[in-house]
Amino acid sequence: MWPLKKIFPVIIILITLSLLGSIAIQVNWITNAVHLRKESYQERMQEVVAQVASNLYDRTTRISVRTVRMRSSIDPTGNRVMLEGFTSDPTTYKMNQYSVVDVRAMIDSALRKQKIKAEYEFGIESITPFGNTVKVASRNFPRLRAELDSSVYLAPFVSPIVRDLSELTDSPDVITIIVPKPNLLKSLGLMIVGNVLFTIIIIAAFSLTVRTMFSQKKLSEIKSDFINNMTHELKTPLATISLAIDAIGNEKVMDNKDKIRYFSGIIKEENKRMNRQVETILQSAQLEKDELEMKKTVIDVHQLINKTVDNLQLQLDNKSGKVELQLDAHQPIISADEVHFSNLIFNLLDNAIKYSKEEGLLIKIQTQNTRKSLQITIADNGIGMSKDTVSRIFEKFYRAHTGNVHNVKGFGLGLAYVKAIVDAHKGKIKVESTIGKGSKFILEFPQD
């Protein structure tokens, strides 16, 4: 089976090509549909104007006239006068009887027959060598006729008033119907909306698939990192305990109570450390299942902060650090789960110590009361965080990169736990940080 790093780009390329191909097919289909609708509309409008021209032709009155000419002559005898008559070929004259009302009725009927709904203007013109003469026209026909050359929104349909093309030379009259060019995209509106919606669904599915794949890739990396960190975190105390046990078994040490007490203390501390790591993992499992139980009691936040700082004094001494307390809240009492709230403060202080500079660590803890809440601020002068890190620090298993995976101990669960506890107490947490200057966590909890 191919590794995820190699198959991932291939999947992205294939999905992208499928999406682009689908969009191209949809666009081509819509373009062809518009073209076919346009041709169909033009054919039906030509049928309309031809039908109206035929009806007008049937209403034309034709009169045939023959010219008779007389010629006189003298009989050869000279006694009589003779008359001779000559008849010319018949000449046909047209008596046109057009009215605006009649022509409009014909056009309306033809449009209904072709199932076309459109506003229109019409005119009947007589074509002569000296120009066109308008015989009958609707009100706006002259204006629209003048705009035809410059307008892209008007379409003229013209037909000579004849029964068939063989009579074209006999009729100098033509009918012109001017209509707005149809909005074919609008006529295909439902179809286009359906295709666009379908395409959006495909794009959304594509985006969701890619996002899920990135998430899975990220989770895979986080899982590997977590396993490596967990192995390291558990292996170190086990190795220390093993060395301490071997030392106690040494004959020289067995007779020295002080050394036995010293190595026993190491074993006890490393055992506590392992218990804390296991407890952290169990807390993570509880967070995953939303099984955190809050046993709320009335607690004094100032007392809890002082107790937590005392418990971390050894770690502070190792970093040559100190804690400044500005506990100014006049009402430090809240309803909270003492164990979880204590862990919350411990995790924030522990993080400040872990991500501190080589020396000169300073942590400031402040409290104050607002109108209906207690605000706790924990600030340090550590290495700080980037904006990207700040946006992700509450994600489970996420750990800020500091150049070495194991130079900062932990599983990346501490701040995820902090956020869960804050939410469980209906509180708020805000983070401010600048690289090289330190970080500040501002917590706010409601007070009844």
From TrEMBL:
One Pfam family matching this protein: HisKA
KW Transmembrane (keyword) present: yes
Gene Ontology annotations for the cellular component aspect, listed alphabetically: plasma membrane
Histidine kinase domain residues: 229-448
Catalytic function, reaction form: ATP + protein L-histidine = ADP + protein N-phospho-L-histidine
Top-level division of the source organism's lineage: Bacteria
Name this protein carries in UniProt: histidine kinase
